[in-house]
Amino acid sequence: MIARNTGFSNLTAGYLFPEVARRRREYAAAHPAASIISLGIGNTTEPLSPHIAKAMSDYALGLATPEGYSGYGDEQGNTALRERIAEVFYNGIADASEIFVSDGAKCDIARIQTLFGRDVSVAVQDPAYPVYVDGSVVVGAAGAAKSDGSGYEGITYLPCTPENNFFPDLSKVGKNTLLYICSPNNPTGATATRGQLKTLVDFANANGCIIIYDAAYFAFIRDESLPKSIFEIEGARTCAIEVNSFSKPAGFTGVRLGWSVVPNELKFADGSSVNRDWNRVMTTLFNGASNIAQAGGLAALDEQGLKDMKDSVDYYLANGKLIKETLDGSNFKAAGVEAYFTGNGPYVWAKFPGRKSWEVFDLILDKCNVVTTPGSGFGPSGESFIRFSSFGHRKDVEEACARLSKLVL
Ligand SMILES: *Cc1c(COP(=O)(O)O)cnc(C)c1O
């Protein structure tokens, strides 16, 4: 028989979100009358902009005509879309030849792990979006889980906690490391300042590191002084790859469309071009994003589409504010709960001192019938934290907040 891929045998327990779903299912089965509200998984809930949906529908119907039909598209994605992404989001800091359209940021991160292979050193923010670590384990860039629960062998965990304003201490990062940074952050909501990113970029350039910059929540940034792309920082073009997505701003979590930016100046140790190998990955292991989704992406970037995306993000940010206000309530304060919400990301990250994340998760599920996400699922430094997602219908968020405000902790 064929031996199991050791990367998979090294993976511990379930992936976080399936475990959340399992507990929810079990609770619902045992309490059939409970009306469960999810503030858990970061999945969009509001309908697509009719303008964007119509562009996809028109494109799809056009595919049934000789004039409108198209098969495989341009190598790195629809050229008009890449040019528009460059113009709208990277005016002057990256061009269309450096942009690759994909089926989403998570898929790009998995392919990036193929690009760097098993011999690369990896450092992650702790807590972090699970694919950085789990994907590294699968490709063999990390080893087995350590028995003391402090993570996987071969991965450097960089704690991001209230004590360091959720920005990692880079002195723990070795030379030539692949460094995963997410801003605005999932799960903590922290958004890196220009100064913090400059520190990061200077460190990476001085130490031969490459930063994988996950900017999936860039559209939530409302503070004009905060950078939306790492390429706004001088020096980033020689040390960073940015991954990005239409999932959160345009509600494309199910439609599937994202992009990556790999600057022409970015090089491997032997002087070869990272952009060229990434083109190879994208053309040999991936055959392009759906042309229907790309038509939607183009519509999302015209005047009406940009307005619709902003409105959608504003809606979720207003939910986040309601959740933050609830967690600042006297019942939470009495238990010493500290809630962090920056207004520049969709997550409220709350610390429950002296408690385990899964214990608080179960308590909130049981007493409020609200599903959250346990912080410990994002890494060792997430223990005692709970992530509340602002993705939800307003009336559900209001109902969840009403229940939470009565919770006795
Ligand atoms: C939701 C999310 C993504 C989006 O992934 P897609 O595959 O584009 O849907 C990427 N990174 C983070 C941190 C996310 O939370």
Can you offer a commentary on this structure?
- The structure is a single chain.
- With about 400 residues, this protein is of the alpha/beta class.
- It has helices spanning about 5-10, 15-30, 50-60, 80-90, 105-115, 130-140, 195-205, 245-250, 275-285, 290-300, 305-325, 330-335, 355-370, 395-405, and strands spanning about 35-40, 100, 120-125, 155-160, 175-180, 210-215, 240-245, 260, 340, 345-350, 370, 375, 385-390.
- The chain has two domains: about 5-50 and about 305-405, Alpha-Beta Complex (Aspartate Aminotransferase, domain 1); about 50-305, Type I PLP-dependent aspartate aminotransferase-like (Major domain) (Aspartate Aminotransferase, domain 2), CATH 3.40.640.10.
- The strands form three sheets. It has a seven-stranded mixed sheet, sandwiched between helices. A four-stranded antiparallel sheet has the order 9-10-13-12. The chain has a two-stranded parallel ribbon with strand order 1-11.
- Helix 5 packs across helix 9 (about 275-285) and helix 11 runs parallel beside helix 14 (about 395-405).
- The chain is globular.
- The model has no long low-confidence stretch (mean pLDDT about 95).
- The structure holds pyridoxal-5'-phosphate.
- Pyridoxal-5'-phosphate binds next to helix 5 and helix 8.
- Pyridoxal-5'-phosphate binds near residues 104, 186, 214 and 216.
- It comes from Treponema saccharophilum DSM 2985.
